[in-house]
């Protein structure tokens, strides 16, 4: 559906059109009409799906002449960057609607400037909960006439500990109001807020991983333990993205990696929550302008940042939450463009964690061999050839004079050019780490050593082999093929597993439930004279998994291409 089909005023349609927006995104199509009616909304959709416009356009549209000087709409965002970004976008929607005056309030910036703006009379305030509270306490922000409050990235605000501030702010807002909440995930705390503060809200949910990840090519590299930084240097050199983001799980890692990359000559800057506002702004400006083409960041610092034209996202650390993965890779391929995401994994645990992510997002993450130094040199060669051929004719005669003089001392043209090119290759490659990729072994292989694990559930609990296998696949992220023979006894069951995966399996299956029973998995020490109640020389197949969760996982698995095809047809 197009914006034009909405019953919006000309001023706004004009501005939206100028921004190049034509078709609404799914979340916009579903929430704008409901918001215009004045109803409460809980909207859930991924990053990059246009939530700002989803609430910003109705907000701008709703401002009336009598609200010229009173704050009518309040938007809360988790970070300063997001507040700034949301304000910028809302301002654009209001370009031709003079009545609308916006103000962004966030910490780390001058209180006085914000107070001056607020005094001048504004009707849409966008800010972080902490600073909003500050202004309320100083009575520089009055909410007596507020009629719409919007919580953007509500889950992240709660993660960041803004709950108390948010609840206090809500307590100052007249009861008879519209309460709107947008979030990428819906943890129970959000539902609690919804119940407490919203009236008969319309729940709008856009399916996870729709548009955002479709246009993004996703790859992973297996890297030996402790070699991720080396691997990353090679990748950055080999792919040479003109703009890229690297994600780490901790602030410390962001600092370390930034320093390490900078030492190797990469133009890189780090971004995390402990930095001063001025530094953060500098870093963001440097990144947007291209003077720092590589940005290393934590999830929170990068949340929602909307910079266009990011070629590649690297997951240095595997994200702690599946949704984070979507958020991270959503930095590239924004608004219909394509992009590439690369994840570095070390060890089996990360391998399975990534496989879990792949299933969760229902998209393929392909393995790619790491480039080695020779590959990098090869791309450098190509780059140099391209660069020189694109340089164009020499207009300055002095270049030839220098060549002639060199020739007179025995260095001919060919040799001169070779020396220059050679020096450049050396400079660009001498600090590259030597690398011999060593693949991590995984899964069950012919002739591989196996051990048996024992699970304390058996025939008397009315279980079948596919229950057991389903639960194991579900808990470990491994595939059915990774497991061997399953023997069900009266009170327990044994399963053959690869010895190399034994520790991992134990770790990820305690606790585990099978068919509603809490079970314990441990090493099988052997039993005497036990009667196997059901022999399964043929391993059970997973075509008809018997319970919900594992069925879903199996259906979306991309690691077994044949299965995927087969599943697709069923839909
Ligand atoms: P979210 O808050 O869901 O992460 P944003 O509101 O930041 O997403 O929007 C992501 C990008 O998509 C922005 O650059 C925005 O200008 C653009 N965008 C939003 N809606 C549309 C639309 N209907 N058509 C084209 N581009 C859009
Ligand atoms: Mg947003």
Reported for the largest beta sheet, the result is:
7 strands, parallel
Mean pLDDT: 84
Shape: flat
**Rg estimate, integer Å:** 29 Å
Please, what is the CATH homologous superfamily of the largest domain?
Answer: P-loop containing nucleotide triphosphate hydrolases
Estimate nothing, just give the exact number of structural domains. 4
Report the strand count. 20
Which architecture name of the largest domain does CATH use? 3-Layer(aba) Sandwich
What share of the residues does DSSP label as strand, in percent? 15-25%
CATH class of the largest domain: Alpha Beta
Small ligands present: adenosine-5'-diphosphate, magnesium ion
Descriptive notes:
- Helices cover 43% and strands 15% of the residues.
- It has 571 residues and is an alpha/beta fold.
- It has four domains: 3-206, 3-Layer(aba) Sandwich (Rossmann fold); 211-372, P-loop containing nucleotide triphosphate hydrolases (Rossmann fold), CATH 3.40.50; 374-429, no CATH class; 441-571, 2-Layer Sandwich (Alpha-Beta Plaits), CATH 3.30.70.
- The strands form four sheets. A seven-stranded parallel β-sheet has the order 3-4-2-5-6-1-7, sandwiched between helices.
- Strand 10 (268-271), helix 13 and strand 11 (294-297) form a beta-alpha-beta unit.
- Helix 16 crosses helix 22, helix 17 packs across helix 19 (413-429) and helix 20 (465-476) packs across helix 22.
- It is flat, with a radius of gyration of 29 Å.
- The two termini are 26 Å apart.
- The relative contact order is 0.08.
- Residues 437-441 and 533-571 have low confidence and may be disordered.
